[in-house]
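Can't attach files on this board, so I'm pasting raw text. These are the components:
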Amino acid sequence: MKLYEKTASELSEMLAKKECSAVEIYNDVKSRIDSVEDKVGAYVTLNENALEQAKEVDNARANGEELHPLAGIPIGIKDNISTKGLRTTCSSKMLENYVPPFNATVMEKINSAKMVVTGKMNMDEFAMGSSTETSYIHLTHNPHNLECVPGGSSGGSASAIASGEAILTLGSDTGGSIRQPAALCGAVGMKPTYGSVSRYGLVAFASSLDQIGPMGKSVKDVAMLQSLICGYDKMDATSKNIAYPDYYANLKNNVKGLRIGVPKEYFGEGIDSEVKESVYSAIELMKQNGAEIKEISLPSTEYAINTYYIIASAEASSNLARFDGVKYGYRAENYNSLTDMYEKTRSEGFGDEVKRRIMLGTFVLSSGFYDAYYKKAKIVQRKISEEFSNAFKECDVIATPTVPSSAFKIGENIGDPIKMYYNDVCTVTVNIAGLPAISVPCGFDSKNMPMGLQFIADKFCEQTLLDTAYAYEQLSGGFDVITKKF
Amino acid sequence: MKDYEIVIGLEVHAELNTESKIYCNCRNAFGLEVNTQVCPVCMGMPGTLPTLNEKVVDYAIKMGHAMNCKINSVCKQDRKNYFYPDLPKAYQISQAEVPLCENGYLDIMVDGVEKRIGVTRIHIEEDAGKLLHDDSFSGSLVDLNRCGVPLIEIVSEPDIRSSAEAKAYLDTIKSILQYINISDCKMQEGSIRCDVNVSVREKGSDKFGTRCEMKNVNSFSGAVRGIEYEAKRQIEVLESGGTVIQETRRWDDAKGMSFTMRTKEDAQDYRYFPEPDLLTIVVDEERIQKLKESIPELPNRKISRYVKEHGLSQVDATLIAESIDKSKLYDECTAMKKCSPKNVCNWILSDISKFTNDTGKSILDTALTAENLVKLICEVEKGTISNSSAKKVFDIIIKDDKDPVKLIEELGLAQNSDEGFLEELAKDILSKNEKSVSDYKNGKTNALGYLVGQCMKASKGKANPGKVKEIVTRMLSE
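---
Top answer:
Structure tokens for the assembled complex are below.
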């Protein structure tokens, strides 16, 4: 088995036992990148200092320094997370040449753990999309079928896990942007509780919904990375000041007596029958091994997509207003007034999907429409949250499909935004309620494409969530993440 | 012409003098090199987040207490969205629906008459940067040092009826800001600015006229001129049979005129919504109370106390109360209850003010203590020394913390008030100046002054002039 095919926890042990070096791991991943990246297109920018970073880890180890278990593990960073000195484009023409002068808080943690940053991962422009097709930079392909999308918006982060171009990656999830591409690429991806990972340095899409999260080949790997990146940050007022456990150290196969809620609304019309079957059989497997299955109801789920697109677009319209050509990023070349400069810069610098959402968000916040849209959406948000907290009185986790179907073809949905938005039908509720959720692979469909199983837990119950996912991983015999196609 | 009434509402923006900015750790300082007091947060770099400086909340609550407001212990911050190059995030974090403080009032004094002005609300928000124009460069330059400087906006009810009332309202706000020490109140640095809403209506009407908002009013005198100009303009429109249109106007202080900026039709839609990057502000009752207790006695209360309890004139009471230093010294002296408050007031408004004006020092910078001043005044009241000797002592104690009683002794300034001695003295002088005595008796009363002067001269200034005058007058009438 090649090094790039191994999990972070395996590599961490090998490094500790000096069975391989950080430089060897990086070189193996780099040669994999060199050989498959032109097919996959996972990266926007490669980090030229990665080899240097790997050498430093090996030197530190040789000097007997105490190292974090993730030291020397190659990680790819979604291109909306600010990396000091390394271009952060958000896959937009607007920020094509923007180099942040500071690090996101998660990058400070990754750097201090001495992880090796391979580069910046492709995404839908400003994280708006479910296929990575809205990227201004280039397309990203699903490693399991290059004609298919990898999902989005963290499509680069997910496909790099499946193609072996990174051992771990960071994504961001506003309505499913970690879980949906993880499901479509057959990887593990977790969206942590809102407030558990600092958003400082994450280029904001929808501030009240955004959350950075880990992606990898196994639950262990994701637990390991989550333990590193979580924690209170005084730079983020919405980050929660509580004690965070070491999920990785505490990880246990916990299925006996586990109460799993199955909400009927997540298995209705529009969910592919193959997906339903595979999720049901995963639940059955858990039941056979001692889990208690409860059918539950989350009746407001049908309003989730509308609610999500109102809140997310409203916040986005304000968050993206700063890209005005004055300070950084793209500025139109020819203009005859300030207003003309604003209009041309934003018309030329943003892609269609971003503009669509800015217009939608501007509309729902406009005087005369605010009460009918934004205010009402906030009321539904509260309702959805209440239904979840009631559900968690009778179950520990909730199991649903991650995505209604496996990966679709590139170009298939791009002309139909509403159809594209419905890809998020199983994931947006989690963001609306601020909950943690994880997507794990749950078999391949008849087209031989991966499908995803989503577990949802109550706020700050990441340990229960990861334990559940870990139990399923063990029961299912482990995940086969790396593509066999090349 | 009909009889019109002017209706005025004011929105006052005051920069708070916290050490750091409202949403980041940058220094809150004026006049430093452009774009040096900035960081990724106040420059609005992608991915940055605001974190609230709780001092700003404290300061605003203090102002709320000072203006008799209800404090909203739970309130949000909101985004006000608009594009302008001095606003790097393209939104200003402010408070829309629920302000930190609301429903207060302020009592002002105009021509000796007290009037109550309603205060609608006080909210916190961040300042924007500044555009700079330079002849060497064809475009505009942006200085972001001021971005994130904390502001409070104080909105009044439309209770103000004249430019004089507006001036009194603004002066009172300024003195409160200084008293509770939350703003530097440097007008020339723009630390207080105001927007003025003016409408006119026929006297006796209970309906408000159409109002115009005037922006860019950067001084209190500008506000007075702007109000007068705007009221006159509106009355002229109405008198010529026209109607006032609701609009925002820009005040040009140099020209003394206002100009249309935008009409109601193209009013901006700021698309306010709750700031998702910040938590709801929650202030507990204990903190609100503590802040209330920290509010010192404010100038208005002082003025009425000085007038009612100390018998000062309205003018003198105002002059003392308006200055933190003067009222501090006055209050310390009068609290000792050893001398007449009126005499304390006279010393402060005459000799002490002259000294501070001449030297540019504040009272606190001088060596003068309340204790020494009271001792000196007491000696004058007792007749131990003359007023002119007292000034000599004063010249010393304002520069050195020395005991006036000892100084009087050391310098031999004590006056002689001994009846027997003074009678002898007077007898002697009167006998030597028979002509003046007969002049006085013939009705030339100014001869008295000469005779007293001679007594003083003979005593080398030591005789108590009051007593001497008393005795000489008595002897002349005998």
